[in-house]
Amino acid sequence: MTNPTNPPALQPGTLRVIPLGGLGEVGRNMTVFEYEGKLLVVDCGVLFPEEHHPGVDLILPDFEPIRGRLDDIVGVVLTHGHEDHIGAVPYLLKLTRDIPLIGSGLTLALVEAKLKEHRIKPYTLTVREGQHEKVGPFDLEFIAVNHSIPDALAVAIRTPAGTALATGDFKMDQLPLDGRITDLRSFARLGEEGVDLFLVDSTNADVPGFTPTERSIGPVLDQVIAKAPRRVVVASFSSHVHRVQQVLDAAHAHGRRVAFLGRSMVRNMTIASDLGYLKVPEGVLIDYKKAKDLPDDRIVYMSTGSQGEPMAVLSRMANLDHAIEPGPGDTVILASSLIPGNENAVYRVIDGLTKLGATVVHKGNAKVHVSGHAAAGELLYCYNILRPRNVLPVHGEYRHLMANAKLAQDTGIPSERTIIGENGTVVDLRDGVASVVGQLDLGFVYVDGSSVGEITDADLKDRRILGEEGFISVIVVVDASTGRVISGPEVHARGVAEDDSVFDDIVPKITAALAEAAGNGVRDNHALSQVVRRTIGRWVAQKLRRRPMIVPLVIEA
Amino acid sequence: MTNPTNPPALQPGTLRVIPLGGLGEVGRNMTVFEYEGKLLVVDCGVLFPEEHHPGVDLILPDFEPIRGRLDDIVGVVLTHGHEDHIGAVPYLLKLTRDIPLIGSGLTLALVEAKLKEHRIKPYTLTVREGQHEKVGPFDLEFIAVNHSIPDALAVAIRTPAGTALATGDFKMDQLPLDGRITDLRSFARLGEEGVDLFLVDSTNADVPGFTPTERSIGPVLDQVIAKAPRRVVVASFSSHVHRVQQVLDAAHAHGRRVAFLGRSMVRNMTIASDLGYLKVPEGVLIDYKKAKDLPDDRIVYMSTGSQGEPMAVLSRMANLDHAIEPGPGDTVILASSLIPGNENAVYRVIDGLTKLGATVVHKGNAKVHVSGHAAAGELLYCYNILRPRNVLPVHGEYRHLMANAKLAQDTGIPSERTIIGENGTVVDLRDGVASVVGQLDLGFVYVDGSSVGEITDADLKDRRILGEEGFISVIVVVDASTGRVISGPEVHARGVAEDDSVFDDIVPKITAALAEAAGNGVRDNHALSQVVRRTIGRWVAQKLRRRPMIVPLVIEA
């Protein structure tokens, strides 16, 4: 990371922007806007852990820069209802419940359902595209954008210091299922008026061309379902209302009924249909418990687990650990992306299902998924219609941010006006010029079981060593006054070798090393521990060619 | 796995085939053929560990079925020089060095270099396409096949019981760089003569269509290198002679010299050029130490590390942990596949290089890789030209084997003549009919540091728990006769919580539980350990909502 540098005190007439998450990573999107002492937060998401975060449940943005200023927050705008934009809201509201949440109908309904599990009832302000709201010193205008969840909004933030436009996640499907396109007319109007800072989704900036329309998936689903001889299971993201809509329509067209499987699928689709985002054809839904009385060729199960998550419905089906046991003639469609890092888990599920006799249709062998993010070609349209004065690419790994900045420059925005930031980069906007004025030192906040922010990177390093190499503990009880060994050394190992007899050789060596140390007058517990650690560490490295964690436990009695 | 069933004693006039590895997995390919008491082994490879094999270096086939019969082995045919086909040879030869290795010139040269590191000098028989060899009761004929390494061979195995054909890994590039195509004329001739059992590469059986020609990569490399303003680094597999050839040619065409980086790249390319498989244009190679004296636009580095392996050259470059430090204007080409499971590691490398200012060209944004395996369209050609009586798909996960069997059936081979096997499936061939007659119970043999086969699945389970959750150990010293606590309980944890004071609450509870047990006359160490385990285990589950490994250590003094 760039070396931390404290930003100067915020000058009057200046808009300060600090991304707390989402830069250099895909997830935990969160940006803080400050003007005249008041703070506006846009999004508050989680990051899902990778293999170098063993055991961690979720990763939150570091709230440190706003922790002492909770009373200054005038609102949290949530651009859409995906976890990487709303998942950290419960943890923010646990600091104070007074912050109003601002978002579209569907977005707030999904957040409220999540908050209910944390027993939090939030203050909310429901907005829709075209709406203006004055929140503290910030004049907000909400603009429709198209994404892989309905009712997503971009937000224009006007202050006397200038206008920022944050896209949230978006793409530019020109024929979306709900007819609600990304509102380029408003982008054009804002561009005419002058946008000083454009915070723009970078997720697919390194993908050439254009994201195909969601509508192209319908005929593929239709064809697969038409030909399926027995049961059909479709797995997808539980918030992808339009994907589910196309499954419902295809099932309906072929006289099949649909049962939702998986807690989040049931919950989200209930919300989406209650609010009118999901149009359920008359009589198509059926409770999954009743579905098994239907003939096999009359049912489609719509389930979670498309990323191979071990506890989700699809993995459990593949392991015959679910009431629905797939078999020959059944068809399983993974209508989803394959998020990097999940490949092996997903392939294990595909393999398990294939082994049970099911036919598995997935991204690798059929066009059953399109992305939710604007590819390079779409982003060029945006830059050309908006012509922003300054650009801050957000939402993406470094390579995505770089690719996005390059696109901006290709449309004529000077390179000194495209800012590659990190989490904690402090950007001040004044007189139409955005400049980096500081860099905060932000960390990762791990949710681990019931603990939030207690597990540190040192603990994760310990876990990685333990997970790769196991540990060896050596217990010795010594007489406090003489240093004489009363009991032990006992050597216990886990994850190291099949049986502890491999350590028989080392016990006399430890005893001898301790006797020598005691003879030299060493009494201190820590020093004796070091003697044990050195003796066994050297032996293990040589004999086993491994470096397990060595845990010497010298007890005085 | 299918329940183990012992096969019947092998009848005279029957050919028995047992795959020991490579079925249900991509790697550790090894098949044993038995006729009249003699054994022929085809390939002997390793499997690379995935994330559920933490700390493991390599996975070997289970040699158990041949361990007591080493003297019966008449030879090991190695179809080509990739690790998943030759990597376990040193471990087999450690059991006995008397087994001759049979393979092409390049294959044996690569195996010999590997064996040298293990200080083993093998008996070898070099063969080439068209050659026949009688090895024990097996009449072998070697047939040229095209793959992502030169000099690959299929082997026809003739016995009085019938003829088997094992493809090894192959594809059917019709315009390969070296002009050495998969010899379909010989396939046709064998087909006329009658092939009873076809063991066929399944790796790409679920990929529709045809693998593009290796030759299509040359112009892309040429164009990228032509436009590169400064240094170029190309990373690829260190055995991919033709890929390296195209890099040499492109570099040469643009007046650049090439330096090899990485131990395996240097070693393999020295072998390949010594044997004439790599044609090095006059004066193009340069030692990497001298390369840095060249102008930046006159050099191409050809390196290892295309899979994001942390210790390989490319990862070290990305971490500025290598003498060559990439910077703005440099171009890095990852001319390689992205093996599932390596995505995050590779993306971290791409990100690191991008951050340093390098332009990264990879499979995701340019056509710089083609597969080494026949896709579905090519396999159909094979089946149609060969028309085998029985098919045993090999080399692949279950879904690949299934897809391959389906292709065989599409060409008219009856489904009862396509065998979906597992490692250890015993197939007997007699009178033109192949049947499954048993299933051996085979395991995974882990190479872990200096140990081979000592680490068990239980150890790996321990490592996974330790890696996800950490451990808590509780040490108590008790008086052997009274059960009274003399010292402790001391609670130590690693990978669990930031500081051990979180356990202050539990110490008095453990003391009380032990006192109660002692009062009830419990003296047994194991029983007292269980008291400790239960007390702290319950507390941790409730208080931290985690399940770390609990290690109670009750010591008598």
UniProtKB/TrEMBL annotation, chains A, B:
Determine the domain of life of the protein's source: Bacteria
Chief localization class? cytoplasm
Q: Which UniProt keywords apply?
A: Calcium, Cytoplasm, Endonuclease, Exonuclease, Hydrolase, Metal-binding, Nuclease, RNA-binding, rRNA processing, Zinc
The record's section on InterPro entries has: Metallo-B-lactamas, RibonucZ/Hydroxyglut_hydro, RMMBL, RNase_J, RNase_J_2, RNase_J_b_CASP, RNase_J_bac, RNase_J_C
Which CDD domains does this chain map to? RNaseJ_MBL-fold (cd07714)
Q: Which residues bind substrate?
A: S238, S239, H240, H369, V370, S371, G372, H373
Q: Where is the Metallo-beta-lactamase domain?
A: 27-221
Enzyme class label: hydrolase
Which EC numbers does the record give? Answer: 3.1.-.-
Q: Which GO terms describe its cellular component?
A: cytoplasm
Protein family: Belongs to the metallo-beta-lactamase superfamily. RNA-metabolizing metallo-beta-lactamase-like family. Bacterial RNase J subfamily.
**Which NCBIfam families does the entry link to?**
MG423
Q: How does it assemble?
A: Homodimer, may be a subunit of the RNA degradosome.
Task of the protein: An RNase that has 5'-3' exonuclease and possibly endonuclease activity. Involved in maturation of rRNA and in some organisms also mRNA maturation and/or decay.
Q: What is this protein called?
A: Ribonuclease J
